[in-house]
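Could someone model zinc ion with this protein?
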Amino acid sequence: MKIGELAKATGTQVETIRYYEREGLLPETSRTDGNYRIYGEAHAQRLSFIRHCRSLDMTLDEIRVLLRFKDAPTENCGEVNALLDEHIGHVAARIRELRSLERQLKGLRDLCQEARDAAHCGILNELARQGSEGGSSAAGHVHGAHGRSVERKSINDKRK
Amino acid sequence: MKIGELAKATGTQVETIRYYEREGLLPETSRTDGNYRIYGEAHAQRLSFIRHCRSLDMTLDEIRVLLRFKDAPTENCGEVNALLDEHIGHVAARIRELRSLERQLKGLRDLCQEARDAAHCGILNELARQGSEGGSSAAGHVHGAHGRSVERKSINDKRK
DNA sequence: CTTGACTCTTTAGTTGCTACAGGGTTTCTA
DNA sequence: TAGAAACCCTGTAGCAACTAAAGAGTCAAG
Ligand SMILES: [Zn+2]
Ligand SMILES: [Zn+2]
Ligand SMILES: [Zn+2]
Ligand SMILES: [Zn+2]
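Reply:
Sure, complex below.
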């Protein structure tokens, strides 16, 4: 198959496939006379594996480790289990952070019940106060507070 | 005060302060004869405001909106409240996503109790299966699953 | 033979910083 | 008063994981 067919088969964007190849997650394929990449079933499976891992928010580095084990079927998989445990820890840590954030934000929101002039808005005034450290600094790799898909979409929609 | 003192006073890195200026979140300041930026109390407060918002995982664009209201004290703050509600929605949406992720990951983890050879690892085999869509695609801007601070730290620690 | 759909490589943009490099300025100390 | 340390300046590049676009080539259908 050609790259577009692989893309359709796996629900991946063409550019992402080429990106994974550059990053060494997918092997370089053979090419047609016209220099088109050609893929087989094995590539589709490997790509599905990667996308499945990504849908679980693993980093490409984490996925690289898992692929090493997939490529070495006789090795002991203990490290796989450990990696998964760690990643579950990353997710759990981020959930805790976000819950604390949510509490803070709701407390902040309560400071302004009905709209008035900005100078007397309880929210703006509270945000201007000094102190109030308590930033999130836990030990995980689940980051940010902002979804990818939707944010991009709204940005993209701005063009024309 | 000079930029380093402002940095210390607010717990911000010097480069971050210059970055905010480039991004238009902080105004361009006057300079000394030697071309050093000089700041006053108002700058410190504005920077505290920004950092406070950032600690609540708002984007710089969200913060820009809030600053517009801070700079226009006579305007009605209804939009501030709406923005906060939306952002709380972002955080809540991401929490839901991550909880679903956590469930999936724990289910996956249960597929391999004791380490064996990779070819028979229930985790690797499940990850290789097709289908299993259900990616996170909710409507928020809280992203990723990987913490910033710690990840960076471990990277930084690698130098020497 | 032309149109259109597809593919190729390379490069730049996204977010919110962080880290240099290669200078200049100020301040402390000997 | 010289020299060094500590600070500041601008400009550029890097991080993660893509996404998009420019400019060119390839291939199938009509
Ligand atoms: Zn992880
Ligand atoms: Zn208000
Ligand atoms: Zn938000
Ligand atoms: Zn296993």
